[in-house]
Design a protein that fits this description.
By secondary structure, this protein is an alpha+beta fold. Helices cover about 55% and strands about 10% of the residues. The chain has three domains: about 90 residues, Sandwich (Immunoglobulin-like); about 80 residues; about 130 residues, Tetratricopeptide repeat domain (Serine Threonine Protein Phosphatase 5, Tetratricopeptide repeat), CATH 1.25.40.10. It contains nine helices and eight strands. Helix 3 packs antiparallel against helix 4 and helix 7 runs antiparallel to helix 8. The radius of gyration is 46 Å and the shape is elongated. The C terminus is likely disordered.
Length: about 425
């Protein structure tokens, strides 16, 4: 048999009733409350408080607060009047019927709340699906635009190449015509020379055309033979100068030089390190210890040096993203988390925990940047990997409320 609580207190106004029930050292999580329009029960084993109310109340508008060892009930009356007593004494059969009716009402209310919760969950899933479809549609449109731009660029380059080919063909045809004219002019000149020589009565051998055609005319000395030195401007790229783009090529060469100098600097830096400092695992452990002590900048330096040695360890990027989150470097946190997720492929059981942490860190950075839709997608991905994680469930629910414009709800009966 439970022990009935009799040391409660109550006060009232014309609209409300206030009841204070001492919890006798019981924790709030172990208190069971049942309330209907004419019945109130507070059960915290082995104690029981039960009240068959004098008048009807609105249980939906009534509230309860538990704390400091006492449960405070604010009951809203349906009729504006003062009660003579808080409770009414009935016979045992009437009390039993009131209890059964209260339990039935409570069960019906729970069923209705469950249906409402299921409807709300379905609406949230539908909203998330619509949002994801919209994002996918935008991504498809972006990719299609890129394809169209590339197609237009390729078409323009093709037309430019065709124009150059046409110009080159015209130039070759012009040169050919000039060559033919030159040959024809030379032949006509020779014919004139032969004709003039024949009129002078000189004998000519057709095989000696181009040589002296008359004994009376002086013979010209042969031309001197020599070599002409031609010097070409040195070219790094094999393309012809008229087809090259010199500024772009120079910029590329400068970038390559900078990359080689940076690589040489990294090699010199690594050569100056101690033996253990060249081990990425040792550097990762050092970064983890620095992170635990709150020295986030030094932890970032340790992870960055380890990444220079080995760029294929996803934990280095994920842990550096956690440091950037602490320092509010949100865009860098997104970049490092994304790099970690790229390396954590294919998705297997062995890297499930690492993928979930990377999704949570990137989702947190997105939410801090007020990109709540992207943050919700990362939290949903982490929740899909670890569906039993209550913290993930609570955080995902909070993000949905922010997206929908809702705020935290007060606890009601």
């Amino acid at each position: 048999m439970p022990l009935m609580v009799t040391d409660y207190t109550w006060t009232q106004t014309e609209n409300s009733v206030y009841i204070h029930v001492p919890l006798k050292g019981t924790k709030p999580g172990k208190v069971d409350i049942l309330c209907t329009d004419d019945y109130l029960k507070v059960h915290f084993p082995p104690f029981l408080f039960e009240a068959f109310l004098s008048g009807p109340i609105d249980d939906d508008k009534s509230t309860a607060k538990i704390g400091d060892g006492v449960a405070v009930f604010t009951l809203q009356k349906k009729e504006e009047r003062l009660w003579e007593n808080l409770v009414i004494d009935y016979d045992k059969e009437t009390l039993r019927k009131i209890r059964e009716s209260a339990l039935q009402k409570a069960q019906e209310k729970l069923v209705a709340e469950a249906k409402a919760k299921a409807t709300k969950t379905q609406e949230e899933r539908k909203y998330a699906l619509v949002t994801m479809m919209k994002l996918e549609e935008e991504e498809r449109a972006r990719i299609q635009k890129m394809k169209d731009d590339e197609c237009e660029k390729a078409t323009a380059e093709m037309e430019e190449w065709k124009l150059k080919q046409t110009q080159m063909a015209e130039k070759k045809a012009k040169l050919k015509m000039q060559s033919q004219r030159f040959v024809a002019d030379k032949e006509r000149t020779l014919e004139k020379i032969l004709a003039s020589s024949s009129s002078d009565g000189s004998k000519h051998d057709p095989k000696n055309c181009g040589k002296s055609v008359s004994k009376n005319k002086p013979v010209l000395a042969p031309r001197l033979i020599g070599n002409i030195q031609i010097k070409f401007t040195p070219r790094i790229f094999p393309t012809a100068l008229r087809e090259s783009r010199v500024p772009e090529e120079e910029e590329w060469l400068q970038k390559q030089a900078k990359a080689r100098s940076a690589l040489n600097a990294d090699l010199v830096e690594l050569k100056n390190l101690k033996e253990e400092e060249r081990n990425p695992d040792w550097l990762k452990d050092k970064g983890d210890r620095l992170f635990a002590t709150g020295n986030y900048l030094s932890a970032i330096n340790a992870y960055s040096l380890a990444i220079k040695i080995n760029r294929e360890i996803p934990a280095l990027y994920s842990n550096r993203a956690a440091c950037h989150l602490k320092l509010r470097n949100l865009h860098k946190a997104v970049e490092d988390s994304s790099q970690a997720l790229d390396l954590l492929t294919p998705p297997v059981t062995g890297n499930a925990g690492a993928r979930a942490r990377a999704h949570v860190r990137r989702g947190t950075a997105f939410c801090e940047l007020e990109l709540y839709t992207e943050g919700l997608q990362d939290y949903q991905a982490a929740l899909k990997i670890d569906p039993q994680n209550e913290t993930l469930q609570a955080d995902t629910h909070k993000i949905r409320q922010i997206i929908q414009g809702g705020g935290p709800c007060n606890s009601e009966l």
